[in-house]
Amino acid sequence: MATLEIKDLHAEVETEEGSKEILTGVNLTVSSGETHAFMGPNGSGKSTLAYALAGHPKYNVTSGSVLLDGEEVLEMSVDERARAGLFLAMQYPVEVPGVSMSNFLRSAATATRGEAPQIRHWVKEVKQAMGNLEIDESFSERSVNEGFSGGEKKRHEILQLDLLKPKFAVLDETDSGLDVDALRVVSDGINRYTEDGDKGVLLITHYTRILEHIKPDYVHVFVGGRVVESGGPELADELEKSGYVRFAGKKEAAAQS
Amino acid sequence: MTESTLETTGPSGLEEHSHGGTEVPPASRGHRFTSYDVEAFEVPGGREEDWRFTPMKRLHGLHDGSAAATGSLQVEVGGDSAARVETVGRDDQRLGTAGAPADRIAAQAWCSFTEATVVTVPKDTQPADAIVVTVHGPGRERTAYGHIQVRAEPLSESVVVLDYRGSGVIGENVELIAEDSARLSVITIHDFENDATQVSSEHVHLGKDAVFRHFAVSLGGDLVRVNTKVSYGDRGGDADMLGVYFSDKGQHLEHRLLMDHSQPNCRSNVTYKGALQGDSARSVWIGDVLIQAAAENTETFELNRNLVLTEGARADSVPNLEIETGEIVGAGHASAIGRFDDEQLFYLQARGIPYDQARRLVVRGFFGEILQKITVAEIRERLEAAIDEELAAAGT
Fold first, then answer.
1. Segments of chain A scoring below 70 in pLDDT
2. CA gap A178, A174 in Å, rounded
3. Which residue ranges does the record assign to the SUF system FeS cluster assembly SufBD core domain (chain B) (predicted)?
4. Residue B263 per-residue DSSP state
5. How far is CA B208 from the centre of its chain?
6. B242: helix, coil or strand?
7. Average pLDDT in chain B
8. Are B352 and A164 a contacting pair at CB < 8 A?
9. In 10 A of CB B134, how many CB atoms?
10. Which single residue of A28, A245, B175, B294 has CA 20 to 30 Å from A94?
11. A116 touches chain B (CB under 8 A)
């Protein structure tokens, strides 16, 4: 049983007009076995939260704490966080020319598992995982994400999730830009990852569409860089019907008082 | 002419210039004056188009006649024994047939060498292994002038390695000749000690239907300036020019290419990639392509990419295409200089891969497409190891 605790997290980015606070005090605890949907309008800081958790250098954490099983994540380097069991499926996966997918996957598995996987098992494992996600085998010899379509990139993020099996996964709008078939394939992949009940998921999304495939235990509404309301799956139904108006309005009212 | 420069001077000192036509272009960069007489060239001052990127002081007088020969190159030829190896005097009639000197240092070297090494791959032979020519510099604070000719006779198929090592100041001409229907691959490795200065003019000449492959690798030395001109003696010549360079702290590595298409139905492809790291690391790449009026059905492309790994380094890249006939298959060029991509590093690290390894993966990937084409495994592995070593040095 593992826990990821985010406590009063504040973060800013450097802009041309100076630094700008994006996260304004995020509180959230995710335990293994739980799926938390994180929903909010565009510009609410959802992706910033994802990047700040992963340690992207562009985002500067000014205060707060992120504990993974009691260990301070914010003191770890990007790769240490990944090896500690934190995974970020990116909204816009990066192309790395000249580095083959197979070399990359093996390097990542070696790093996170602490030893190189045995070659025979590994080949089988990758083949199986690629098959599950309906990824053609020829992709192993292609450069990481290079020339992949949006949907292909997302499938490969989930492929990495399946192979690296982190304790906690932050999925940053993994559903965006996917057609109906791809959404099903990717959602199945995420459900396979959680099926043993020992993984925690923070599912960041703008739309409720993916929640038809992945059942969240909790739904959080994220506005203005923090969680403004938390509830069960029924909260997603309300968002589906009424959008974010009630929450965005509430924030404005608070600001005026 | 499109020229681009990337100079990293400080955390926020990123400057990128890209301008076309602001320089006054010389009448033609392709049609060049040549002479075997050193006095036919004026002493360059450093502001001339051909010299403006070169730190003249670090030429140790190669350009102004003050660098007398005080040593000699030691040339050993090993590898496949099928080649004929001769040491000849200045009067050997074969010398100078691939091309005449096009700048003062090349003319100085031509006037100053005392003996030349001629390596001949006999007609219709296919040596199984590479022919390895190892050239040792004259030693610290010594100057030497040299001349090497590699001649691949008709229908031969061979791989020749030119491996430069050691110290000193070197001016030389290298003739690489692929006669009719020969297939010649030449791997040139400039892997000097830190003090070395080398100014080399390579004259490549292709016969009818000759296939020439060149891999130029520059790693060591204080200053290395290589001029490579490819000329076509007849139809059907095919030249692939690939280059890799890694410029470290204080190093100046300069590659100037001229693909002189004077014959119909010939092809050329130039791809050079370089990485730079450390204070005052410099690289210069000049890619000139001339398609003369007679050179119908020419197909040519040139590309230069630079990866600037740290602050304080500067890369210049100048591709230039002159076309005197419209009847061609295709001609193009591309040049780019980029900083080391933090997003790529972040992505790899976010999958648990440690920083040093991630950096290595990205740089290996950058050079990979060229290194993969080197068919001699030993050389490829040596270069991969050398690049890893350069990176490890920067990591500290």
1. 249-257
2. 8
3. 140-366
4. S
5. 24
6. strand
7. 91
8. yes
9. 17
10. A28
11. no
